[in-house]
Design goal:
The protein folds into three domains: 136 residues, no CATH class; 106 residues, Rossmann fold; 180 residues, no CATH class. The chain is 54% helix and 9% strand. The protein contains 16 helices and eight strands. Helix 5 links the parallel strand 1 and strand 2.
Length: 457
Amino acid sequence: MTRSTGKASYSLALIAYDAAVLAAVFVLAYVIRRPMPMFTQVQPFGDYLPLFGLFLGFALTAFYQQGLYRDVRDLSMFEEYAKALKALAYAFLALLALTFFLKLYERSRVLMVLFWGLASVGTVLSRYGFYSLLKRLRTRGWNNLCVSLVGSEKKNKAIRRVLEQVPQLGYKIEGEVILPREKAKRTELWREKMAQEIFLPYQQGRVQGVIISETVKNYHYLLELSALLDERGIPHRHVSEAFDLAGLKAPVGEDLADALAHLDEGQISGGYRAGKRLLDEVGSFMILVLTLPVWLVAVVAIKLDSPGPVFFLQDRIGYLGRKFKIYKFRSMYAQAPAYAVTPRGQGDPRVTRVGALLRKTSLDELPQILNVIRGDMSLVGPRPEMPFIVDKYKAIYRCRFLVKPGLTGLWQVAGRDKPMEENIKYDLYYIKKQSLLLDIIILFRTIPAVIFGKGAW
């Protein structure tokens, strides 16, 4: 069985499992609701099957978007349960909106709310049972993931000890790359070691992933290493301490941000990380709902103005140097090159008439709300750049990868009309001074910047 086939089988089995649980819960909700004397008589069971089918589609899609069908290997699964509850909430809201637009007022709202509540409880309990069974099977050698360790001798030793003590994580060490301490030797040695001890075993199927345990002080080196593994499609996980493997600490990327924040004696707390993600989730969903009329007008205007797709997709570099697709309203002619530096000033011949207005008001960037919902971006953070620009980055610019890129940021509201060389200080300041208060201030300052088109490109 190939790696891709194994992952597909795991995902398909879990999708079928979730669908069966939701179907059983739906039947239970109907059985409970039907005899309730205090409410009107509920419609026949068959009348609700189309709505359940839609909800099932919404829910499974939301589960997928939340990453709930990936291979999880943590002792603490609370984050997975939170994602499941959030996905079900999205699916329920989508179903309510659909019943409103289709004017299906005769359908029992009590049944729908009851189903949502039971589905939330049932999904958490069923996932708990699934993960518990999976951990037991992994201790017996099933679903083990063969990995290579990359890092210092001390770090690798600590990781190996934890994996031996916690077999339910399901990692099996098949290789190890010990990096030299001397920075001068790293450049010439680590590439050769990676090629011989990781790239080749991965191609041969002997290794399915990499655990990187390098110290956070060498974050520039980690970013380059992560980029190389991404280019070759090799799954990898960063851990700054041994117990990161158990999911008991924050991912290494956020530890890297902490390390940089210490330059100014700041401290990024776990509470801030949780609060920032909550702000992203709630804020992006509210913006999406409130701006739906704007989306409709923009879609019609773009289609009438020039031939081509409504949305423009482009590769950008984000958190820890990872590539993702950014969404924008198309503001250029369809035949214009997708990757080019935007000229400063007026008169860009690539831009359409509607596109010029969208850019001036920054509404062309509105679809990036979808990137925030997907988790590729945050509401506040440095802007993500195109790959060919990142290739020319100086070392200091790569600090921008230590946080998620943002829809808006300190640079955009305070200095976006200046060249990057003069404004990297804004990104560095934000990375070192991150706080919910600063994020909220930036969001509020973005409003007049968008209304008056200050510094928009």
